[in-house]
Amino acid sequence: MFPSNTALPASVAELRRESAFGAEDQVVALFDELRVPLLRYLAGFPLSPQDSEDAIQEAFLALFQLLHRGGASHPNLRGWLFRTSHNLALKKRAQARKDSPGAETTAEDHVVDPAPNPEAQFAFQQTQQRLQSVVRALPEQSRWCLYLRAEGLRYREIAEVLDISLGSVSLCLERALTNIARAAER
Amino acid sequence: MLPEESHLSDQELLLAVDGELAPRDQGRVESHLAACWTCRVRKQELETAIGEFVHFHEQSSSAMISPPDGPRALLKAQLARLAQTQPSPWRRFAKSQSPGRPGLALAATLLVMAAIGSFLVRDLARIRRAQYAAVTVPNPNLTPGATVLLSQSEVCMAPGPNNKAVPVALQRRVFDEYGLSAASPRAYEVDYLITPALGGADDIRNLWPQSYSATVWNAQVKDALEDHLRGLVCEGRLDLATAQRELATNWIEAYKKYFHTDRPLSR
């Protein structure tokens, strides 16, 4: 098991070694640690909550199969899970668009307002709407970079997840944050 | 005030904020920030933008996160089901060694006996393997077929049905498994039982030496069946698991079934 105060296995090879006496438990422990960060990342697609959950389930099942199969060690386990979830989410989104065009439901449409009074609620809503429109207007790759960075991935990891160069990661993040900063000035 | 062109770019400021600057640039950027108020203010603006986004991100994604119990239970159930279909040696061993379970000595004895037995069984298997050398279907004990976890859409979105080349080292292991170490590799093609185009795994359990000397049920005929099955799967007329099972069970019978013929069709 990986208690929350201990480090996750860094690579698939490490996880495989730790899994020698119970791969299912190890995969479930990893799921407990990474499900929420993965869900928060997939919020940037956008994707319905159910499709996001499904994509993550499938990614962990794929990890389990990878442990059984042997072979590739995949040095960055967290990156591998983000990348696999990303790819599965892309497919689910394509399927959802095919099944019901224009009927995308995202979590962002159901933001819960935590503000204590009407003035604060109004200000909160204004900020959320402004940011929502800026983030939605970003090119897809910039949005993905931003969400991955928000989940604590370093530039090199983001580059691996999205299969782009380090320079592209840097450029995407710069553009995204410049747009957010510019919108805040208005 | 410093001239405009000497200011740091947003990209450099962001790299500094994120601790991603190359060591050689670190000192230069820090020195510049110490001297330049304009760049310090811009750096603060970018950090404020990061803070705003982080709050927005936490609020907007929180609606997406349901309690973990349901998804966790679902994953455990799916893993348990998957584990039953994919037994592995260490898993069986681990079960026999679980803490508090008696019979450790018995298990150790069984392991020693199994090790001795495996030498005997291997010799017998080699003799039996030789019988498969010239036939056109693989030995199900050596090549039961193995798959990777792919959905129908993943299989169909993958490019082309061409099988990738099997690494030479893996080919040698296949020849050894089938007791063909002394045979000329040119007489055989190491082929996938379940083609990767239908989710077949790059695994020795999914590889077998197909004889070039086979004149009727040969590799080209099997390729035709694989193309046909992939077409059916991608058109939604055949379940992916069924297609994999048909190939793994007996590809010649599958060919007869899906092409409605007892002989390979001429191509």
In CATH, the architecture of the largest domain in chain A is Orthogonal Bundle
What is the N-to-C succession of helices and strands of chain A? HHHHHHHH
Shape of chain A: globular
Low-confidence stretches of chain A: 1-6
- CATH class of the largest domain in chain A, named Mainly Alpha
* Termini separation of chain A: 49 Å
Global Rg of chain A: 18 Å
Number of DSSP-assigned strands of chain A: 0
Structural overview:
The complex is a heterodimer of chains A (186) and B (267). Chain A has 2 domains: 1-105, Rna Polymerase Sigma Factor, Chain: A (Orthogonal Bundle); 113-186, Arc Repressor Mutant, subunit A (Orthogonal Bundle), CATH 1.10.10. Helices cover 70% and strands 0% of the residues of chain A. Chain A contains 8 helices and no strands. Chain A has helices at 12-18, 23-42, 49-69, 77-99, 118-137, 140-150, 155-162, 166-185. Mean pLDDT of chain A is 83; it is low at 1-6. Chain B is built from 11 helices and 2 strands; from the N terminus they run ααααααααββααα. Chain B has helices spanning 10-17, 23-35, 37-62, 69-85, 89-96, 104-130, 152-157, 168-177, 219-234, 240-249, 251-259; strands spanning 188-192, 207-211. Chain B has a two-stranded antiparallel ribbon. In chain B, helix 1 packs across helix 3, helix 9 (219-234) packs across helix 11 and helix 10 (240-249) packs across helix 11. Chain B is elongated. Chain B starts with 9 loop residues before the first helix and ends in an 8-residue tail after the last helix. Chains A and B meet through helix 2, helix 3, helix 5, helix 6 and helix 8 of A and helix 1, helix 3, helix 4, helix 5 and helix 7 of B.
